[in-house]
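Why do we bother with holo predictions? Because pocket geometry can differ from the apo form. Keep that in mind while you read this record for iron/sulfur cluster.
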Amino acid sequence: MNRLYPHRKIPIGISSCLLGEQVRYDGGHRHNSLITTQLSGIFEFRPLCPEVAIGLGVPRQPIQLVHTAQGIRVRGVHKPELDVTRKLQAYGQQVATRYTDICGYIFKAHSPSCGTRGVATWTEQGNGDGTNGIGAYAAALISAIPGLPTIDEAALQDPAQRQHFITEVTGWYQKNHAGKPG
Ligand code: SF4
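The structure, written out:
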């Protein structure tokens, strides 16, 4: 429960596969029971899947981050001519403009769209060349809402990081939305 404002839950964005929605490239999901049990009493989730939103469909070609002469691009694993970088970035900016009530975001870890850290990157020849990437959608959204509290489901398993995220989200809510009709 939201202790400061017990009559309402705090809205946050979330990668929809974490809620059990079957939106992954292979038609699966990544349901996270900690989120749907412990955190569902505090937060009102705004589930979003950027890859579905930009029209890739389910199932779809898997995508990955690729180092190119033009910088890091999001391309099809088996179809390099498929480049969805700009579409994912544009959708991140669009969500930031449309969902002005969100006070935080739980992202799916390691995704080339939703990952906020440690996403695998590849060379154009298909060799792994690092794990310091960030998902194109997440990067655009975070840059469009400076300071928005974010976390991924891997960090959320740690009690200290989870509590820190809840505190930050509550602080954002107090600062930007408390007292407004909702
Ligand atoms: S990680 Fe993001 S893009 Fe991938 S299935 Fe989950 S919500 Fe969709």
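The chain has a mean pLDDT of 95.
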